Amino acid sequence: MLPIDPAGRPEYPPCAPGDTVDRLGGRDVPDPYRALEDADAPATREWSAAQRRLFDRLRDDWPAVDAFRAAMTRLTAFEHLTSPRPAGGLAFFTVRGPADEHPALAVTDPSGARRILFDPHRHDPTGRTVLGGWTPDPTGALVAVQTAEGGAEEYTLRVLDVATGRTVDEPITGCPYGEVAWSGGPEAFYHVRGGTRGARLYLHRIGEHPADDTEVPGAASPADGPGHGLGPDTGHDLGTSTDTDTDTADGPGSELDVLLGPDGRLLVAATADGLSSGNRVRVADLALGTPEKPDWRPLTALDGGWSSPWPATDGLLYVLTDLDADRGRILVLDPAAPERPRTLVPEHEHEVLESFAVLDDPALPVPLLLVLRSAGGHGRITRHDLRTGEPLGALPLPGTGVLTDLTFRQGGHEAWFGYSDPTTPETVHHYDALRGTTEVWRAPGTPDVPAVLVSELRCASADGTEVTVLLTRPADRPTGPLPTVLQGYGAFGEPQVADYYAAALAWAARGGQFAVARVRGGGEHGEGWHRAGMREHKQNGIDDFLAVARALHDRGLCPPEGLGAFGQSAGGLLVGAAATQCPGLFAAVAATAAPLDLARYELSGYGPYWTDEFGTREDPEELGWLLGYSPYHHVTAGTAYPAVLLTAFEDDARVDPLHSRKMCAALQRATSSTRPVLLRQEAGVGHGARARTGRLAYFADVLAFQAEYLGLSVRSAGT
């Protein structure tokens, strides 16, 4: 049990506040726990060790830890596959078996025989190595594979021989997460090094040492500066995914993405100006220059938006962009006349355009464009005439769930996509345009999913904006109050979707309700929804979250002392701000790997690259935005705060653990509540992907913490 002082408050490891005050933007900004920023200082190490002992002691008394770990294990015990990428008659994809610690890279031949090409656990039995981006060459002879260790955000690139699995070149180090652009065959590829420290494009020829790689000039204009953006689909989001990795919406991709057309002639580079401000696209016809010195031509008609280009077999560029279209549209342009792009698929009234696929097999009566859109977290795929954009109908789907990972065979007639919903793990489906059929490509198996009721709730935010929340609760409790965990994210245009979420199912199986709020700042309704919750509008997303919390109370969906908040990374910032602004709404709050000191967030980790999303302390007006909701600066002495669990990953290169340490110390000193403020520290892992065992243990701790302080019983409901 937690020791109690004579005043009836919990006793915490001592950490006296200091008198540090920064003068910023003409105002004094106190920072009483600045000393905890130095992780290696003896006093910090001693304090952190005491916090670790405190957390371990209390966790040992939570009766639901083992039950939640067992439930999460069963609910994720299925084979998880990604959509395949065809190359040279082979299909490449990742697979994680029911008991595997990490996804492995696999390949199948035309007969369907599967073979593992790279298994991170076999490569490193300690479990610290994770798989990053990977790209087969067009012939399927070689595949470039990225790996990273621990919490590192820089990857090592290896080239494997597909027939033997052997490494054929010296590893290339210092790469950001991403893929390579093969030169039309297995002889050479373009790749990026440098990441957020200043990306550079290189040409690597197979058989040569990486030190001899040629730096390719001109891919990014010097005016762009050190970018920090991402291309689409650069990682696995923790928020609502079966893999339960920490989110990658805020990293760790490269600010420079490169593509090469199917004939090895059209080279395309997209350089990000920032995570939230758009990118710039350049194109080079290698027939008019050389591979080492392309004759780059800027596509200025795309400036001002996020654009994802695709060079197709017809020599044209197909571009998904939010330029002048918050919910996205598809343009087509001729690289020989790039100043005159043509809208092929216009912006939809309420659906967000997520991705597309080009099916241009000459055997097709009409070349096809497949368009994947989402609305309110639910997806659909429509068919269009590639030449005119004319709609030709929709693909049949197994339900109204989430669609992801749309891939296709270049110059072919096949496409693949993932489907999931709240009770169905992601299943890969195959579309054959020649036969007009859609069927399951590989089924993941069926875990023992509890009987749940999934619904949506709508409520009005402070300014009248309608906000939706996804509810998952036991099927035998369709109405009435239940201990409820409310999760949110609300940043970087990242949507919260209705897919298979083991944590929500595990909570509902034990008699609780799990709620996921779709607040402004996310991407649920396009870029306009994102902009409405970023920078000076950040409070909108917090207001949305608070409005959902109040609606859950007011409509009798949770007990008076039965609402918890949960967020990770930028979602941890969201719930930290909500809890410091309205602590009485919540009985328990769990914030993981969250930036919580907004006056200093840009001085560590990936903070310098998020100023487009949040603002900068260097501008007095923007500093005012930050201090307006910074959780660390809104901790008030004598306030009865809810139970708080702050989780920090000690090797987190994106969000420095200093944020959780300082917030923990501030809350422990300030709270007048008998509910504990705890710091969960995990060594050897970072912000992104890690071993399955560690992920499940983390979720078991978070859910058991919520159960302890929301009054959820330890009843079993089939899991």
* Structural class computed from helices and strand pairing: alpha+beta
What is the number of helices?
11
Q: Unreliable runs, pLDDT <50, ≥5 residues?
A: 221-248, 715-719
Largest sheet: number of strands, sense, barrel closure: 8 strands, mixed
Termini, distance in Å? 28 Å
Average pLDDT taken over every residue: 90
* Cα gyration radius (Å): 25 Å
Spatial arrangement of strands, main beta sheet: 32-33-35-34-36-37-38-39
How many DSSP-defined strands?
A: 39
Helical residue percent band:
10-25%
Tell me the β content: 25-35%
Principal-axis shape equals globular
Quick overview:
The protein is 17% helix and 32% strand. The protein is built from 11 helices and 39 strands.
Topology:
Elements: E1 21-24, E2 27-30, H1 42-59, H2 65-75, E3 80-81, E4 85-87, E5 90-96, E6 104-108, E7 114-118, H3 120-123, E8 129-136, E9 142-149, E10 155-161, E11 172-175, E12 181-182, E13 188-193, E14 200-205, E15 214-216, E16 256-260, E17 266-274, E18 278-285, E19 296-298, E20 307-311, E21 317-321, E22 329-333, E23 342-345, E24 352-359, E25 368-375, E26 378-385, E27 391-394, E28 402-408, E29 414-421, E30 424-432, E31 437-442, E32 452-460, E33 466-474, E34 484-487, H4 502-509, E35 513-518, H5 527-531, H6 538-554, E36 563-568, H7 570-581, E37 588-592, H8 611-614, H9 620-629, E38 643-649, H10 658-670, E39 677-682, H11 692-710
Helix pairs in contact: 2-4, 2-11, 6-7
